[in-house]
Amino acid sequence: MYSFELRQPTSIGGAVRALADGGQILGGGQTLIPTLKMRLADPGVLVSLGRVDSLLGICTDDSGRLCIGGATTHAAVAEGGGAYPALARLAGRIGDPAVRNRGTIGGSLANNDPAACYPAAVLASDAVVATNARDIAADDFFTGLFETALDDGEIITEVKFPVPASAAYAKFLQRASRFALVGVFVARFASGVRVAVTGASESGVYRWSEAETALSAEFSPSAVDSLSVAPGGMIDDLHGSPEYRAQLVRVMTSRAVAAC
Questions:
Q1: What DSSP string describes 53-114?
Q2: Residue 55, phi then psi, degrees to nearest 5
Q3: Rounded to a whole number, what is the distance in angstroms from the first to the last CA of the chain?
Q4: Regarding the domain with residue range 166-259, which homologous superfamily does it belong to in the CATH classification?
Q5: What values do phi and psi take at 220, rounded to 5?
Q6: Residue ranges, CATH 3.30.43.10, the chain
Q7: 170-213, pLDDT tens digit by residue?
Q8: Which residues does 192 contact at the CB level (< 8 Å), separation at least 6?
Q9: Which residues of the chain form CATH 3.30.390.50?
Q10: Which of 45, 139, 199, 236 is within CB 3.0–4.6 Å of 115 for a Cys-Cys bond?
């Protein structure tokens, strides 16, 4: 690990100023710390968000949305996200207890790992990612593999989740990492159904529009039986072929609908 300076601001403004000095954000450190240990990054200055109290906590706003502070841990979401049971259950299955007690929702979304769970929940829920500068709609936030719409100096301050009539997340677990080999989050709103897939595509999380159309017309597990997923663009690694992942997308979608 390269040497670095650790700054621990107590306000968002202080964190933004530290970033302007060339710092890099440290949330729960579940990705960054291993990267530093392997000497794959040399940030010079780390800006910890752990003492910014305004980034912590869960509440419900006047619109009925579940609002989660960017530095809130997975364990806290699992325990305090009861207004959105599917999201709370998702958080409770991320990693292991050590990961859940350190990792944060904002850190996961900013990193945008192609197999992370939260991006599927955010995209399927049509959530809003709030930063110190603006609000970003879920459909605009995820831009590619490990890429988001965040600009330099932007910090995720809050994630605002509309609560659907019903929702569920079906995760086919990669047991070594506990990431999703394929995970599908299904959310049913009065306006229609949204389906988001993680762990499958080389480009990261995405919406499965064909399933959304089918499920909006008939919300049942069998509604996706006749649909097929093309293996092109799917991840190909030692854990599963593109064809295997493509099949899992349909299977996990059906399971998520059944769980609703």
A1: GGG--EEE-TTS-EEEETT-BHHHHHHH-TTSHHHHHHHTTSS-HHHHHH-BHHHHHHHT-T
A2: -95, 5
A3: 45
A4: CO dehydrogenase flavoprotein, C-terminal domain (3.30.390.50)
A5: -150, 155
A6: 1-49
A7: 999 988 888 899 999 999 999 999 999 999 999 999 999 999 99
A8: 212, 216
A9: 166-259
A10: 199
| For the chain, percent of residues with pLDDT exceeding 90 | 85
Query: Cα separation of 208 and 143, whole Å?
Result: 16
Alpha-carbon distance 142 to 36, whole Å? 24
Query: For 226-259, how does the pLDDT look when each residue is reduced to its tens digit (9 = 90+)?
Result: 999 999 999 999 999 999 999 999 999 999 999 9
* 1-49 CATH, one of 3.40.50.620, 3.30.43.10, 3.10.450.50, 3.40.630.30: 3.30.43.10
Question: Is 121 buried (19+), middle (13-18) or exposed (0-12) by CB count in 10 A?
Answer: buried
**Model-level pTM?**
0.95
Residues 22 and 8: their CA atoms lie apart, in Å, by 14
